Amino acid sequence: xxxxxxxAAPITAMSAxxxxxxxxxxxxxxxxxxxxxESIAGALRHLLGRLCKGLEAAGxxxxxxxxxxxxxxxxxxxxxxxxxxxxxxxxxxxxxxxxLFTPLLERIEPGPGLETLVLSATETGPLSAVQTGLCRxxxxxxxxxxxxxxxxxxCRRRSPGRxxxxxxxxx
Length: 171
Hints:
single chain, alpha+beta, 4 strands
C-alpha cells in the first residue's frame, strides 16, 4: 500500500530580525578582546570618525545613535549590550558625539572582553554645510575684529566735523 502524499507546506522566511538594520552603520571586530575603558573609548572614536564620513558623503547628520557591544562569552541568541544617544538636531561632528558618549561608556560591562562593537545611526536628518567662522582660530578672529574697530575709530578721528564719518572714509 502506498502512503498518502501530503501537500507541500509553503516555504516562508524565518521571522524578521528584532530591530531593523540601519542604513548607516559601522562595525569593528577585534583580533583580541578589549576590556579597558581607554580601549573602548578609542574604538568608539574610530567608529564615530568612519560613520561621520559616511554621513557627510550622504549629506546627513545623526539624530540617534546606538552602540552595540558584543562580549566574548555571550551566546549567539543573546542581546548585545546597547547604549543609545539622541541629539536635538542632526550632527556629524565625531568629537562632539564622543563627548556625549563618554559618560555612557561606564554602563558597558566588558567582562572577559568585547569582541565586536557596532555603531548605528538609527535616525538621521539632512545636514547641509554650516559656516563656523570667518577666521581660523579664535585669536585670528579677535585680531581681525580689533583691526576693524581701530580702523573705524581712525576714520572717525580724521573727520570730526562730519555727521556720517564712516561714509566719508577714504579706505
